[in-house]
Prior knowledge:
Radius of gyration: 25 Å
Number of strands: 8
Distance between the termini: 68 Å
Order of helices and strands: EHEEEHEHEHHHHHHHHHHHHHHHHEE
CATH superfamily of the largest domain: Ribonuclease H-like superfamily/Ribonuclease H
Number of domains: 3
CATH topology of the largest domain: Nucleotidyltransferase, domain 5
CATH class of the largest domain: Alpha Beta
Strand order of the largest sheet: 1-4-3-2-5-6
Oligomer: single chain
Strand content: 5-15%
Structural class: alpha/beta
Number of helices: 19
Shape: flat
Amino acid sequence: xxxxxxxxxxxxxxxxxxxxxxxxxxxxxxxxxxxxxxxxxxxxxxxxxxxxxxxxxxxxxxxxxxxxxxxxxxxxxxxxxxxxxxxxxxxxxxxxxxxxxxxxxxxxxxxxxxxxxxxxxxxxxxxxxxxxxxxxxxxxxxxxxxxxxxxxxxxxxxxxxxxxxxxxxxxxxxxxxxxxxxxxxxxxxxxxxxxxxxxxxxxxxxxxxxxxxxxxxxxxxxxxxxxxxxxxxxxxxxxxxxxxxxxxxxxxxxxxxxxxxxxxxxxxxxxxxxxxxxxxxxxxxxxxxxxxxxxxxxxxxxxxxxxxxxxxxxxxxxxxxxxxxxxxxxxxxxxxxxxxxxxxxxxxxxxxxxxxxxxxxxxxxxxxxxxxxxxxxxxxxx
Length: 382
């Protein structure tokens, strides 16, 4: 069905509250705007599966109420982008949520498994994915598009139930708490303009004064992109931002000398960019940002991380948890460099499964050996 009025929403809400589960999926368009454009919402609860078209004139407040109802579990697959869209719609992320992709990894499936593949392996259901690259902003929708969109949501509840049963049997449901809490944390989806400079490639090559300028002009670009709803790179490319930070231009003529930057395309906004440069130049020394450069002199970090990776793969096989979910490359580098305070490997379920073992390995209290052609971990008794 298509939900077009409050009466239709009422039937969906009753079903969701009765079962305690609301399955969700979205179709969207991105690439030409700063904000991802929500084009379609698919929902399923009880025996109701429906399409909500946000491009029509429809009051979505009943849906917002459902999304924010903490008595209803919102089930999604690969949920980050969907929840980001829901956060803009609701003002904050829905809670509680259950991401079947994350749950599947802890249930023994491959890391970041796709929806159709998981559906086939878990429920022996095959669906048509021929509309994966359709333009969801075009209207009217075809019957094939509607069928495709609904297929992405009608199987989520049985998938959720089967995964939950498997995880409860293995005592792993509580492992998901931290991952799902992040998906319901407003900070996860917040854009802080003054922190965007850290995402600029090769920012670490700049000195602190140049970083101060980069921070200021990147924050200006972020706000300009938000205000105009345009991609960041359409405003100014990262490479040009780095050159501006290095050269410290103070007028339009100096801006024109920077490769890849046409001041005419900025128009009156060029004054705002130059003002951002001036703010970075004037930033007090004590307030200049820094990007920590890890010092690797004390140990061969690359070699240590490779050794740690062998232990991760060993525990990954033992616990039937995909290695990238158990410990990412950046997690290993962070722990090897001594940055334990913020390391995800020393919190939650990862700590018991791999974090403590990795600490023992780094401290020389655990060794890796080859026995009968296989890698084994052994305690070193001192």
